[in-house]
Specification:
Chains B, D: InterPro entries: 3-oxoacid_CoA-transf_B, CoA_trans_fam_I, CoA_transf_AS, NagB/RpiA_transferase-like. The complex is a heterotetramer, with two copies of chain A (about 230 residues) and two copies of chain B (about 220 residues). With about 230 residues, chain A is α/β, with parallel strands linked by helices. Helices cover about 20% and strands about 25% of the residues of chain A. Chain A is globular and about 50 Å long. Chain B is of the alpha/beta class. In chain B, helix 4 (about 200-205) links the parallel strand 12 (about 185-190) and strand 13 (about 210). The chains are: A alpha/beta (about 230), B alpha/beta (about 220).
Chain lengths: ~230, ~220, ~230, ~220
């Protein structure tokens, strides 16, 4: 019997190694797997490259990981926010590397990794700073920039429900990057509000099929009272 | 010159959004447009974080931290709305499925180049989000901005001095003093705020303008 | 009020012009929009380029469209089947053009069109007849072929339920190409077993959001009794 | 030489599929492998038309024309299975998410080139389906074929004469007389059907073979 559920957050983040590339789901705090991030901080892996839409909010979650000095580089689209003070300070001090990627290219590059494409010509960013030094091409009268896949060793994501095969469904706008990050990491680790028996999730509504998920951990349904 | 308030600008943009349009309203000033879309007109608001059919702000106390817009403010979803992941959301944007996006701007050039994400100032931490995807992807890109900076310089320029968001992507500019189209023949003033004259406008904009009001502008 | 539902199949296929590129959903007969195809035959458009996984089965649906001599070219992955006699005869007689595309490249090229990419480097087909004359590139030690988007003027697809905004859900393996073709056509026309009131489809389970659909027509629930 | 029947070949392949594997069984002979997967072992069968967790053939009368496999035969879905569209399905294949695919073959070369989609015969109507995606995408590509053609030629060849499906993609070949791995050091015989000798095998295969049985082959 295959059972991808693990019984502790510690077990969930086991094996994340120094220098790993780790995708972290979420758009701001919606969909951010805060408990998994806390477990990663406790686990101790350092020199991480983080892929996330943002660069942390306030002092919790991703911001706390940054504050613990575990992150060497962040690949994101929107670091600067009203409450991104942790990142801002590290960045200004030259203590974190930033690769700024337009949000749609971030999504498309993650998808390209998950789908096994070698590279994509995307229109986004053509003629801008963010395409400097990149190969471009005119196709049918429109300009495109060549962008490469973003793969990860691990993905930490948050879903609403999961089962022992790793099937996942999400909740509202917390879905955001979860389903695509799950496809692009060697080991995808999902925190869910509830682990349900196999067969409980309707095969028509499963958003992330279990093939993309290696570990599932339940964190209780504190965040999903409305589900 | 007579100037529209920010709310009047939002109301002006809202008037030009036809029923049935798929629309993305950028963070900041453009978000205000939603307040002026007539209730009887069905317009589909898209938010890049995976919502289509976005509704109004929730009642106080009804906020859901997992139901937010691209500006990370609480929103609601209309009946008929849907949730999807970031890949699908940006396919909608980049794939030309949005009819209109409305963006703020630092500068717009005479050829429709847009600068709205980065001042280029030393020490500034850049953040781009979905602006570049909207700029290249939406069928029509509307910009909404005051014509002048706080220090009195025209934000409508010959060539942008700020880093670009997109090249030749802007279709129409709603300013506080006039509505101006970017056309193959250059910038064309479609509408002047009541009391403003074309000559007055041309004096403060360092790019040649033409005057060609739209018959059905309202 | 926006109402994308139309009351007749005739209205559903109105405007499909001679020479149009038309995507048709389905994998074999599962998910094939048979009633829309019949309506297209009655409508009379000719010199069509058809994009489908197959090239018709038996004498109905897509095979009937071929038999009516309305198709100039077919883009597909698997034309030859036990019951593809209509296509076989036309092909052998030189009366239909075939662009053979590996199934995954067909899907990826349709997705690229829907997502606004200019081109993609795909590993599928490298070193084979189907990549002859195409640009290739080695990326990170692996070989890729450059493939371009496949767009369409119209897509005819079959779904289980739809609403007046064009939101769709599908049924079992009849989903196949429907959701991706919907993204890649100027006008997507969906036949559904049932039109439901707006709000009946759970926003979490809508597979094709209405933005990708222009017309919806109900054909009764003959095929969906198990739904 | 002693030869396995087609069912024995299927049984042999099935033995090598570990619990928890994500597996795609190609059309034709490979489909038989499903019949020999031990019921107590949870193995996830993928079908490129959008199924994961495919089950057995339905009872007569229970067939659903919208629940079919890639060979367009009626199947069932296990509890825990899921449906998805062709884009997602081929992302699973091309993106390296399948552990194993099992494909039939016309020919396999000494370096693991695969030919299984087209005889190249004049007048033949080619059809490729998902074979090329499986060949490049699965972590391990197993081929399942009789060693000899009906006219007695080796299907294991120095270089394929039929049009290729994929270059250097095959990892292991299950034939009716032996199991052979494609390795950086060439073709290595891992297992001979009982009663067959290596020399005998080498005599009919026009490519140099090595013998290196796997300790834990069964």
């Amino acid at each position: 019997m295959i059972d991808k559920t693990v019984s502790s957050l510690e077990e969930a983040v086991a094996g994340i190694f120094d220098g790993a590339t780790v995708m972290i789901g979420g758009f701001g705090t919606a969909g951010q797997p805060a408990e998994l991030i806390d477990a990663l901080i406790a686990q101790g892996a350092r020199d991480l490259t983080i892929v996330n839409n943002n660069a942390g909010n306030g002092e919790i979650g991703l911001a706390a990981l940054l504050k613990a000095r575990r992150v060497k580089k962040i690949i994101c689209s929107f670091p600067r926010q009203a409450d991104s003070q942790v990142f801002d300070a590290l960045y200004r001090a030259g203590e974190i590397e930033l690769e700024l990627v337009p949000q749609g290219n971030l999504a498309a590059r993650i998808q390209a990794a998950g789908a096994g494409l070698g590279a994509i010509f995307t229109p986004t960013g053509y003629g801008t700073l963010l395409a400097e030094g990149k190969e471009t091409r005119e196709i049918d009268g429109k300009h495109y920039v060549l962008e490469y896949p973003i793969k990860a060793d691990f993905a930490l994501i948050k879903a609403l429900k999961g089962d022992r095969w790793g099937n996942l469904v999400y909740r509202k706008a917390a879905r955001n990057f979860g389903p695509i990050m799950a496809t692009a990491a060697d080991v995808t680790i999902a925190q869910v509000s509830e682990i349900v028996p196999l067969g409980d999730l309707d095969p028509e509504v499963i958003v992330t099929p279990g093939i993309f998920v290696q570990r599932v951990v339940a964190i209780g349904n504190a965040v999903a009272q409305a589900a | 010159m007579n100037k529209l308030t920010r709310d009047q600008m939002a109301e002006r943009v809202a008037r030009d959004i036809p029923e049935g349009s798929y629309v993305n309203l950028g963070i900041g000033l453009p978000t205000k447009v939603a307040n002026y879309l007539p209730k009887e007109r069905e317009i589909f608001l898209h938010s890049e974080n995976g919502l289509l059919g976005m509704g109004e702000a929730p009642e106080p106390g009804e906020e859901d931290p997992e139901l937010i817009n691209a500006g990370k403010e609480p929103v609601t979803l209309l009946e008929g709305g849907s949730f999807f992941h970031h890949g699908d959301s940006f396919a909608m944007m980049r794939g030309g499925h949005l009819d209109i996006c409305v963006l703020g701007a630092f500068q717009v050039s005479a050829t429709g180049d847009l600068a709205n994400w980065h001042t280029g100032a030393p020490g500034a931490i850049p953040a781009v989000g979905g602006a570049m995807d909207l700029a290249v992807g939406a069928k029509q890109v509307f910009v909404m901005m005051d014509l002048l900076t706080k220090t009195g310089e025209s934000k409508l320029v010959d060539a942008c001095s700020y880093p670009l968001t997109g090249v030749g992507c802007v279709d129409r500019i709603y300013t506080d003093v006039a509505v101006i189209d970017v056309t193959p023949d250059g910038l064309v003033v479609r509408e002047l705020v009541e009391g403003n004259s074309f000559d007055e406008l041309q004096r403060i904009v360092p790019v040649p303008l033409k005057l060609a009001p739209l018959a059905a502008a309202a």
